[in-house]
Amino acid sequence: MRARSARPGPAGSGRSAVVTGAARGIGEAIATELVRLGYRVLVTDVDGAAAAATARRIGAVAGLRHDVTEEAAHAAVAEQARTHAPLGVWVNNAGVGHDGTLAELSSDAVRSLVEVNLLGVVWGLRAATTALREQAAGGVRGGDIVIIASLSALGPVPGLSLYAATKAAVLSLAGSLHSELRRDGIRVHAVCPDGVDTALLRGMAEDGQARALVRSGTLLTPGEVAHAVSGLLGSRRVYRTLPAWRGALMRTAALAPGPTMRLEPVLRAIGGRRARSRR
């Protein structure tokens, strides 16, 4: 018996999707886009009430409380998604963005960054992989796993050093897993956006180094990130930076961090001026 192909086309009819951290911001925009494409979407968030409210508002099938730092919770979410339809897309979006130098960060902030941004993604990747492989054994093959990384994964970002390190780690995971899972028909993607106009950015210290550097670039909307995610589904493309020119700039900075970071005061000043002009 020939296995059915699970490659999502322009619509996800007949497949379910999970988006973590989707009660608001980037996650909500991605969930909304997947609903539009026909997926039966589960909105998950550590704030269960907000997840349920968002699910009702956008037409998702359910909104669930989901703490991504709990390994077993991911398997439960995957099982719940599969009660609606075979899993087709899993988006690891949940993240925290505590800013400050490594010396300044509290121990709680350090643990949160690593446990949510790195381990939370690892548990999600494992749960999604297990679910998609189980489906393949039953004749429904393939699917897409997406990681929302960050432009900061590509080069030095003073004031966001540990945040950037967690994003670099999950970006590395995406590339390796894409190769590991190719024979299973599972496609792995990572989106690396520049600063996005969300509560995470607005929660950074107003006069902090990180916020000014982020504002020196291109401030994106959650919808632009969601559009990039939908464009990757079904493709073999692993990485996508937003915008592309900033990705090239960050990779250059990674190759020569010493000379490039001499421009950091200039970039911070540009970001500060842009922030003041928006008030």
From TrEMBL:
Query: InterPro entries annotated for this entry?
Result: NAD(P)-bd_dom_sf, Sc_DH/Rdtase_CS, SDR_fam
Please state the Enzyme Commission number of this protein.
1.-.-.-
Query: What does the UniProt keyword field contain?
Result: Oxidoreductase
Looking up CDD domains in the UniProt record yields: SDR_c
Q: Which SUPFAM superfamilies match?
A: NAD(P)-binding Rossmann-fold domains
Query: Is ATP-binding there in the keyword field?
Result: no
Q: Has the keyword Oxidoreductase been applied to this entry?
A: yes
Main enzyme class: oxidoreductase
MF (Gene Ontology):
oxidoreductase activity
Family, similarity comment? Belongs to the short-chain dehydrogenases/reductases (SDR) family.
Q: What is this protein called?
A: SDR family NAD(P)-dependent oxidoreductase
